[in-house]
Amino acid sequence: MNRFVLTIFCLTIAFAGFGQGLSKGKIRMAVEKIFLNGEEAPAQMASTLGNIQLDIISDGFRQKTAMTMMMMNTVTFFDSRTDSIKMYMDLMGKKYLVEDSRAGLQKGDTLGGMQKAEVKTVEHRDDVKEILGYPCYRVDVTMKAPMDGEDAQSEANIEMKLYVTDKLKFDGSYVTQGKEAIPLKGTPLEYTMRMGGGSFSMEMLMVAKEIGFEVSADAFDPPAGKYKVYTMQAFQEEMGQMKR
Fold first, then answer.
1. Which residues pair with 25 in a beta bridge?
2. Residue 72: is its pLDDT beyond 50?
């Protein structure tokens, strides 16, 4: 289970917005369905994983994304005016603060042992659905990333199906990992993420549940608690040890 937690963590930590001129407002997303090997997950597991919640907030220049999932709470701030990124992570009882810049994060290895990934997108403008009143079209994303360490000869295969609206402009990197920004023309309001293969695969459907346009004055306050400051390299090394 630790390996799964870290994989999801790697995929979602990069939600620190990599864009400027963003929409002002907020989106709340939550898990709607979970599938294991093509079948709906057992009730107990679905209940545990189904508590995943993703909140994206922007004031037009800064973007904050807060994720709650099982043993992990992550809050990331990105300021497009200063190129600064701050990631506050409460992971299995330990508190980490990684401070970096967008350029620095994009240069470094991705987290959890995953390195440079191959990303492909295909738009399907004829597949449209409405989510919370916004017309959305489908975008298929495939990612293939080599693994290092004990998995050096294997690859992480990730497939995602997104429904994207052109009517909002939030940075959509909350659906993928660090430096591999997905070239989207809008904001994902739904995405299905599939991981694994062979004897085990997991699929989660995340859907926007709320959209609002008022941002509170304290929305960008740092989370409470004492966080140990890490460089990106030191944090990656610790995550790599935990994965083993």
1. 58
2. yes
Residue 239, pLDDT above cutoff 90: no
| Element at 48 (helix H, strand E) | helix 43-49
Measured between alpha carbons, how far is 50 from 203 in angstroms, rounded to an integer?
A: 12
pTM for the predicted model, two decimal places: 0.77
Give all strands (DSSP E) within 80-117, no chain letters. 84-91, 94-101
3-state secondary structure of 182: coil
3-state secondary structure of 60: coil
Q: Is 25 left (phi over 0), alpha (psi -120 to 50) or beta?
A: left
Q: Among residues 112, 60, 64, which one has the least CA distance to residue 84?
A: 64
| Helix ranges (DSSP H) in 56-189 | 102-107
Q: Is 140 exposed, middle or buried (0-12, 13-18, 19+ CB in 10 A)?
A: middle
